[in-house]
Design a protein that fits this description.
The chain is about 15% helix and about 40% strand. With about 190 residues, the protein is mainly beta. It has a twelve-stranded antiparallel beta barrel. Strand 8 (about 100-105) and strand 9 (about 110-120) form a beta hairpin.
Length: about 190
């Protein structure tokens, strides 16, 4: 099953494959269990670029997520749809993310339109310095100043997976939220 761009899911499961050869593989599944997006992050790239496909054959390109620079502690990733205007960007808040992961969602012109913030600073610190696999991450999605959704990591020492519910988020394109979740799997998942 493939999901059209305009109907990108607002409730989904995002998974990082445990084993993959020469790169990392991520999949996003809709509520019905059907594949919505397939992503293969190539190994040995200086500048992160993720191609998001609607199929595992990698024939139907849905969007591209591309880092603006090679080395950037507070990296910004542009999200675009082929043949269309850019959707926006996701910016990792570098210094804030030392203690607790935080991402800013940007609309056209790099205007902040939302945030994704790890819920507990105490659990974040315990996870970073002592027991990373014992405390699954939980993020809140903010549409403006209000919490409108969440991203919850499943407790599983072998597979990184997030349950995402952004059905209450109205002011942010669902594709940008899917891209942000992919970045959580890719960037934050390297810490695991």
């Amino acid at each position: 099953m493939s999901t059209e761009l305009t109907t990108s899911p607002r409730v989904f499961v995002a998974r990082k494959a445990f084993f993959s050869f020469l790169g990392r593989v991520f999949r996003i599944y809709g509520e019905d269990g059907g594949l919505c997006y397939y992503i293969k992050r190539k190994a040995f790239r200086l500048k992160d670029e993720l191609s998001v496909f609607r199929d595992e054959g990698q024939q139907d390109l849905a969007m591209v997520i591309k880092a603006r620079s090679i080395f950037d502690f507070g990296a910004t990733f542009d999200v675009s749809v082929p043949g269309s205007q850019p959707l926006g960007a996701c910016r990792r808040q570098g210094l804030k993310s030392i203690l607790r992961d935080e991402w800013t969602l940007l609309g056209p012109g790099d205007v902040a339109i939302g945030k994704i913030i790890e819920d507990s600073m105490l659990l974040a610190l315990l996870r970073r310095f002592f027991f990373q696999s014992l405390f699954p991450q939980t993020f809140s999605i903010y549409d403006g100043e209000e919490k409108k959704g969440h991203i919850k990591q499943r407790w599983n020492p072998f597979e990184l997976a997030y349950d995402v519910d952004c059905s209450g988020v109205q002011g942010i394109d669902a594709r940008l939220l899917a891209a942000a979740t992919i970045l959580l799997l890719s960037v934050e998942g390297r810490q695991q």
